[in-house]
Design goal:
The structure holds two protein chains of two kinds. Chain A is an alpha+beta fold. Chain A has helices at 2-7, 18-51, 81-114, 119-132, 137-149, 183-211, 217-236, 260-287, 290-298, 303-333, 345-357, 360-389; strands spanning 158-160, 165-168, 171-174, 176-179, 240-243, 246-248, 251-253, 256-258. In chain A, the strands form three sheets. In chain A, strands 1-2-3-8 form a four-stranded antiparallel β-sheet. In chain A, strands 4-5 form a two-stranded antiparallel ribbon. A two-stranded antiparallel sheet of chain A has the order 6-7. By secondary structure, chain B is mostly helical. The model of chain B has no long low-confidence stretch (mean pLDDT 86). Classes of the chains: A alpha+beta, B mainly alpha.
């Protein structure tokens, strides 16, 4: 009797059954989506035929025929669109990585200063955050670019560090280090140091857990990472020479140059994202209750240890997830490069190449997939880090 | 009671508990005390204060002099600006263009009318204690229709009530507001639908919603705008041609809907399961359960997140200049290409930056105010 009512053998109309309804509804939704895609697919094929554009990825092998101002890999106008893709991709990645690096440092400093007991500093940071994050990023990029290209001409460059750095409207010119014989040994020394450091920190932790004795891991790491390469350099006789930028005619020759497009984009991305990161860091630190600090002090921990071993690990759990989405935002926002002509993926491959070949669908799809992959990659790395620092419960 | 005098003279004795209150030590109260505790409490703090003061000293006076003291406020071209500071004559002369783009001057009353309708539509949403709230809500519901006909007109020719104004003539703050408001109005319901779909038990519906949300959130808005301006015309049958602005509006709405969906999902997840079960026990179906029980609670929790999405959307409207629409920032870039005003890019950018800032800062203040108002019951 009772089992009958629970199993519910008496059903009403099939249409009133939730499971049937779910199946019907889903089939309908699926059908509509498929019809939609078939519809736009046939339209697209017909339109492309009318325009005389053939689909496919053959265009990647055809010559691009235009110059790109900044490239990390060798590139000439005779190279293919496929190579343009990599030039753009590397430019996007370089500005994104530089931006993430600088925004994290600036954002953390700002977030900590916001909590400073110093009234003036705290208010200054408050207004920095409120002004920067309430103005569109694109406007900020355009503004910094406008500032940079109104700098003096190369002949009236602003000079600093004793005639080695030159700042003018063409960019920031710096000496370029050139590796000589025996430079490999320095690299090897650095790699060795980077291998030793994590092993040492693990051993120090083990020893502390076993015996209670501490070991100055941080300073030893710094000494190893700086000292070993320096030692190697001393042995090989400092095999690094510098190529200085020199004014020849109307422009500088030699050295390294940071173009104004790169500097404007990087600077705007950094200060804009740092404003958000500052708020995230502030919220994260405030989320750790003051009782934790008091408890650490009452156990006799120094303030620096309290920050490092009590406050920071707990604050990081709150900070890391929103920080991840800021990193993703920064990477996606780097596509605004197109507004000032920095040759990133969207402005070279997704802009000029698209206009030249007319392969809109292929190019936009590839561009979108690249950003999707970068997003997923950053998410995965940050999720891994987040898992490592997450609270381990019983 | 003994005669108490506020003195600290030695040799004076008081019975226990009768000692008069002493004045606070010098330098702990008043202005000097405030300075000591807040600015110069320690040596590092004092260094920070001096650094901050130096920063202010080197930044504020030059900007102030540039923007106000040394600035020119009137003139017909940049040659009339003789002084070293800003040339605000540009803003003065091109003010209408900043606000309306190339909207025909004879029809400007329609923009003002739309602005009035918009303000009347927004008021009852923002504040719950204004008079005639119910009546104003009717206006709010009709806003998409009234706004559309007021701005774009009812037809061309002699007998048309409102002459058609083509969308390429829209621009400036007007266009920014059109994109922003449409995005906000459209993204909320789409976002709710996507969030419900993502939390649904139906695997196919859930998969479709997750795919859409994660795809859109993974790509930059620029690529979506490119898609709407370059790819969408290919998707349509021959002869059908969408307005460029309309395509851009669809792109912006779908983009912010994906972000909105994630915010709302957060709210849905915060509702305890008991609420769902109680609603089901009362015999409510899915839609009634959502409309009367779940969504009112879920949306209230995530109001700050929703407003943040709106702020992000409002800032992102500036990206439409890249696909060739003349929004506020697009106009700011364009007016200085005129030979009369060439090179005044800083004035132009500063002016629109202030406009954007006022809107975004206003929204964020409103969100904080609303949060404080709604949290009265839960505050510890």
């Amino acid at each position: 009797m009772a089992t009958e009512t629970i199993d519910g053998p008496k059903r009403g109309s099939l249409l009133n059954d939730q499971r049937t309804r779910a199946i019907i509804f889903q089939a309908l939704a699926f059908f509509l989506v498929v019809v939609f895609f078939i519809y736009i697919g046939t339209n697209t094929v017909r339109n492309l035929d009318a325009l005389g554009i053939s689909t496919g990825f053959g265009f990647l092998d055809s010559p691009a025929g235009y110059d790109i101002a900044m490239s990390l890999i060798p590139y000439e106008a005779t190279n293919t669109h496929g190579r343009v893709f990599f030039v753009g991709l590397f430019n996007t990645l370089s500005v994104a990585i530089a931006g993430i690096f600088a925004a994290t440092i600036l954002g953390v400093v700002m977030g900590v200063l916001r909590l400073s007991k110093n009234w003036l500093v705290s208010k200054l940071v408050y207004w920095y955050v409120e002004i920067l994050r309430n103005i569109p990023l694109l406007l900020q990029i355009l503004f910094w670019y406008a500032v940079l290209i109104t700098l003096p001409h190369p002949k009236q460059s602003i000079v600093f560090f004793g005639e080695t750095f030159h700042l003018n409207k063409r960019g920031l010119y710096m000496p370029e280090p050139i590796a000589g014989d025996g430079f490999g040994l320095i690299v090897v020394a650095l790699v060795v140091a980077l291998i030793i450091v994590p092993i040492m920190s693990k051993m120090a932790k083990k020893r502390q857990e076993a015996t209670g004795q501490t070991f100055p891991v941080f300073w030893t790491s710094v000494a190893l990472i700086l000292g070993l390469p320096l030692l190697a350099a001393a042995i090989t006789g400092f095999p690094v020479t510098y190529d200085y930028a020199e004014l020849k005619g109307f422009n500088f020759k030699g050295g390294m140059v940071l173009r104004p497009e790169f500097v404007a984009l990087w600077f705007a991305l950094t200060v804009y994202t740092a404003a958000f990161i500052a708020e995230i860091v502030r919220a994260g630190i405030q989320a750790v209750s003051h009782g934790q600090t008091e408890a650490a002090f009452s156990l006799g921990l120094k303030p620096s240890w309290t920050t490092r071993m009590i406050i920071l690990p707990q604050a990081l759990r709150v900070i890391v997830p929103p920080l991840t989405s800021q990193y993703l935002n920064l990477t996606k926002n780097s596509s605004l490069a197109i507004a000032i002509g920095y040759p990133d993926l969207v402005s070279t491959f997704g802009g000029t190449s698209l206009n030249q070949t007319g392969q809109a669908i292929e190019i936009i799809m590839i561009t979108m997939l690249v950003y999707l992959s970068i997003s997923l990659l950053i998410s995965m790395m940050m999720n891994y880090y987040n898992k490592r620092i997450a609270l381990v419960e019983r | 009671m003994t005669d108490v005098t506020p003195s600290n003279a030695p040799g004076q004795h008081y019975p226990p508990g009768q000692h008069p209150d002493l004045p606070p030590p010098p330098g702990t109260v008043g202005f000097v005390g405030w300075l000591k505790t807040n600015l110069f409490s320690s040596i590092p703090n004092s260094i920070l204060t001096i650094l901050a003061l130096y920063l202010l000293y080197s930044a504020i006076p030059p900007i102030f002099f540039w923007a106000f003291i040394d600035a020119d406020f009137e003139g017909a071209s940049r040659t009339d600006c003789a002084s070293a500071g800003a040339c605000w004559a540009l803003i003065d002369v091109r003010f209408n263009q900043f606000l309306y783009g190339f909207y025909p001057p004879d029809e400007l009353w329609r923009v003002y009318a739309t602005a009035l309708v918009l303000i009347l539509a927004v008021l009852p949403v923002l504040f719950d204690n204004i008079p005639f709230r119910k009546l104003l809500f009717i206006n709010t519901a009709l806003l998409p229709i009234t706004g559309f006909f007021l701005l774009s007109g009812t037809g061309s020719g002699q007998d048309a009530l409102l002459q058609t104004v083509e969308t390429p003539q829209w621009g400036g703050l007007l266009l920014t507001m059109v994109i922003g408001v449409t995005g906000i109005v459209a993204s909320l319901p789409i976002g709710v639908a996507l969030a419900l779909g993502r939390r649904s038990n139906m695997p196919i519906v859930r998969a479709m919603c997750v795919t859409f949300i994660e795809f859109v959130r993974g790509v930059p808005l620029i690529t979506i705008l490119f898609m709407s301006s370059v790819m969408v015309p290919l998707f349509l049958p021959e002869g059908v041609n969408f307005d460029k602005l309309l395509r851009c509006l669809i792109g912006v709405s779908l983009f912010s809907a994906a972000y909105m969906a994630e915010v709302i999902r957060g709210g849905l997840q915060a509702i305890p399961k008991g609420q769902y079960e109680a609603a089901a026990a009362m015999g409510l179906g899915f839609w009634k359960m959502m409309y009367f029980i779940i969504l009112p609670q879920a949306l209230r929790i995530v109001i700050p997140g929703i407003v943040n999405t709106f702020i992000g959307l409002f800032k992102d409207t500036s990206l439409v200049l890249i696909i060739g629409l003349f929004d506020l920032l697009g106009i700011a870039k364009t007016v200085v290409t005129d030979a009369n005003w060439i090179g005044l890019i800083h004035e132009s950018y500063a002016f629109v930056a202030v406009i954007y800032w006022v809107f975004c800062f206003g929204m964020s203040r409103y969100s904080i105010w609303l949060e404080a108002k709604l949290h009265t019951g839960h505050k510890r």
